[in-house]
């Protein structure tokens, strides 16, 4: 079927092209979404930059046309011949060991033999990269050194032998890898023929047998390397990459195509170009020759991932830090699999078995988890969002905390807390809902508050449409910090997280002097305020954290402190907003608070609590609290001022919200103090009264 004919039928509404012969046709840049190419012959077909959303290529035959295969075979023979030529050259040098009448040639022969053996050993044991590097260095430095000590022939033997053996082995290995199982014998035969004949011709009759034997040995080693490259040996990835690239010339091309939801189940995909293709939820179950496609930088470049999408079997496997964005793992068996810090955004795991899997810090924005099993999974810091589909998730219990083997605190914070209880049907969805809609920025080592402040402010200014607003902060252990930010509903959490950590790592790499200059340039002190806020959160785990009952950690059930990184810094005004040294004048702050308290209206009913008196007690307790440093006192006093402002109109919705935030911060701060601390004692007495005054209890 011609391309023009198919496109006309598609325009008329036809979608069924099952079994069609489309060899060598071009659909470049067209839209064939939803087309059914089941069992079609698409060898040599050009689908570059074609829109193929939900297209069905199951059992399709892709790859090279017959003429393409013939051209490839000729190319393989050419590579084999070149490899044979280099092998013959090396054979000639080794044959010089029989030239005892010429000392220079005799020594050169032995130098060449030893050099070849050394470089082949490096190639076999350490791989392509090391062999090439050693070849370049050795050929130059060794030739110079030996040329000084011996004659020119010896220098040439050393310098050339190493380079020739590596290049010859590389070309020969590529030839074998390109040929594949079907044409290996022919490629080796050509290489041996050229190598043997060349060696005999160059070395002469007497030493021809030795030269030929050496050439044959070089060729066989090259063949072995090519076979190992084709099998996926990591030492020879460069050879495999070159071979697959060559083999894909003239094959089926999906380069730059949109293959979202496309189906390649049981298709034959040898010599297929998938570079820059959009592989979102594309299905690869039981696809043949998926290891021979040209994958570009997609997850198909990883042998373990290729096997996973082909078989759906990933029990106990590790995918730590892997970029698996858009992968299709529907119904896969992933029991005990480890996806720590992996990116599974936009992927589908619908119906998958994730029993006891590790989803620690896993990005799951727009991920489909419909009907999957999460019983026993660990979800500390996982990146679910409002766009994550959790419908019908089956889960009896979950672990909120990853426990390092041998940790002093082995509590994984199981939910439900009672080990005798499990979630009822659909209960997990209700449990997880309150923590879905935040952007979770999890810092797991060498936490730098200055870099956090710089990166967060930069992110907020770059993406004003995301409406970033800090919801809560939590210090976990000695070197872990979680920053949770509310966002607009349409915000892409995965992209925001990636961009934030790129900026964070750049800011963390700044020298102290550069960072100070950057902070000094912020005249409105926004970065400095955020930095001090983060500093206090790091010093005191409960500071600016809310009590998420469901989350099992110090995260919030109600809305947290409103810290906006745009033009205003919400609840951290007054915190170190002076010069860059962070010196805080508590006297000035207390003066502002006294004024705010005195402006409160007199109570009209003597039976009602006196808010002035209650706030004065809190103010005194904060100032005299020995467990708080100056910055913490300033931040906590600022909440007293907020309560005083809210007391001006306690029935107003905005004022009640302001009071709610302030009381939540007080609760967290008091919880972080030791039992019997002055502020904790005062808050225990006046806190409930203040909350009752604002109708929060």
Automatic annotation (TrEMBL):
Lineage summary: Bacteria, Bacillati, Cyanobacteriota, Cyanophyceae, Acaryochloridales
Protein name: Pentapeptide repeat-containing protein
InterPro entries linked to this entry: 5peptide_repeat
Organism of this sequence: Acaryochloris thomasi RCC1774
Record keywords, A-Z: Membrane, Repeat, Transmembrane, Transmembrane helix
Residue ranges crossing the lipid bilayer per the database entry: 69-94, 106-125, 132-161, 167-194
SUPFAM superfamilies named in the record: Pentapeptide repeat-like (SSF141571)
């Amino acid at each position: 079927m011609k391309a023009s004919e198919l496109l006309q039928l598609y325009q008329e509404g036809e979608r069924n092209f099952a079994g069609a012969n489309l060899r060598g046709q071009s659909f470049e840049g067209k839209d064939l979404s939803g087309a059914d190419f089941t069992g079609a012959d698409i060898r040599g077909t050009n689908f570059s930059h074609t829109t193929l959303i939900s297209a069905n290529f199951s059992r399709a035959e892709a790859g090279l046309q017959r003429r393409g295969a013939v051209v490839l075979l000729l190319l393989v023979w050419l590579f084999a011949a070149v490899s044979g030529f280099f092998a013959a050259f090396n054979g000639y040098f080794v044959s010089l060991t029989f030239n005892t009448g010429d000392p220079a040639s005799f020594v050169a022969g032995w130098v060449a033999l030893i050099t070849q053996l050394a470089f082949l050993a490096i190639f076999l044991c350490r791989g392509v990269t090391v062999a090439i590097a050693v070849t370049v260095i050795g050929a130059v430095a060794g030739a110079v050194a030996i040329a000084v000590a011996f004659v020119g022939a010896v220098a040439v033997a050393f310098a050339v032998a190493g380079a020739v053996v590596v290049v010859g082995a590389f070309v020969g290995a590529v030839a074998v890898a390109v040929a594949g199982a079907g044409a290996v014998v022919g490629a080796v035969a050509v290489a041996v023929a050229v190598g043997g004949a060349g060696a005999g011709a160059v070395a002469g009759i007497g030493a021809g047998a030795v030269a030929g034997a050496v050439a044959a040995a070089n060729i066989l080693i090259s063949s072995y390397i090519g076979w190992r490259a084709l099998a996926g040996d990591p030492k020879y990835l460069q050879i495999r990459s070159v071979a697959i690239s060559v083999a894909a010339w003239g094959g089926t091309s999906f380069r730059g195509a949109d293959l979202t939801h496309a189906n390649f189940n049981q298709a034959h995909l040898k010599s297929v170009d998938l570079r820059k293709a959009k592989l979102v939820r594309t299905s690869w179950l039981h696809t043949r020759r998926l290891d021979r496609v040209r994958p570009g930088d997609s997850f198909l470049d990883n042998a373990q991932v290729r096997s996973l999408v082909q078989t759906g079997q990933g029990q106990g496997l590790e995918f730590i830090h892997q970029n698996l964005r858009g992968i299709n793992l529907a119904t896969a068996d992933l029991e005990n699999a480890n996806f720590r810090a992996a990116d599974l955004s936009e992927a589908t795991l619908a119906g998958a078995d994730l029993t006891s899997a590790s989803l620690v810090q896993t990005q799951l924005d727009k991920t489909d988890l419909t009907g999957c099993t999460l019983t026993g999974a660990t979800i500390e810091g996982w990146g679910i969002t409002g766009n994550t589909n959790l419908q019908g998730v089956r889960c009896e219990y979950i672990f909120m905390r990853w426990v390092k083997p041998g940790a002093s605190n082995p509590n994984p914070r199981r939910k439900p807390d009672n080990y005798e209880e499990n979630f009822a049907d659909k209960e997990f969805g209700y449990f997880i809902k309150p923590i879905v809609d935040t952007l979770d920025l999890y810092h797991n080592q060498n936490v730098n508050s200055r870099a956090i402040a710089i990166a967060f402010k930069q992110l907020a200014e770059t993406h004003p449409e995301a409406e970033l607003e800090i919801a809560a902060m939590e210090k976990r252990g000695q070197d872990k910090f979680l920053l949770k930010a509310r966002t607009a509903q349409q915000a892409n959490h995965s992209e925001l997280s990636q961009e934030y950590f790129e900026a964070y790592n750049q800011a963390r790499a700044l020298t102290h002097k550069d960072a100070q200059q950057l902070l000094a340039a912020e005249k409105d002190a926004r970065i400095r305020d955020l930095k001090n806020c983060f500093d206090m959160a790091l010093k005191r785990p409960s500071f600016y954290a809310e009590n998420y009952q469901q989350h099992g950690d110090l995260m919030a059930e109600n809305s947290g402190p409103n810290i906006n990184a745009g033009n205003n810094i919400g609840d951290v005004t007054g915190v170190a907003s002076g010069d860059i040294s962070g010196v805080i004048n508590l006297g000035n702050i207390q003066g502002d608070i006294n004024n705010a308290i005195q402006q409160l209206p007199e109570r009209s009913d003597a039976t009602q609590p006196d808010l002035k008196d209650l706030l004065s007690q809190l103010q005194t307790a904060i100032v005299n609290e020995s467990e708080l440093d100056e910055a913490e006192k300033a931040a906590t006093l600022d909440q007293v001022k907020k309560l005083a402002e809210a007391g001006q109109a306690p029935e107003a919705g905005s004022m009640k919200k302001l009071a709610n935030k302030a009381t939540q911060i007080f609760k967290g701060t008091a919880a972080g103090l030791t039992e019997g601390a002055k502020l904790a004692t005062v808050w225990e007495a006046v806190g409930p009264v203040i909350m009752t005054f604002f109708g929060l209890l």
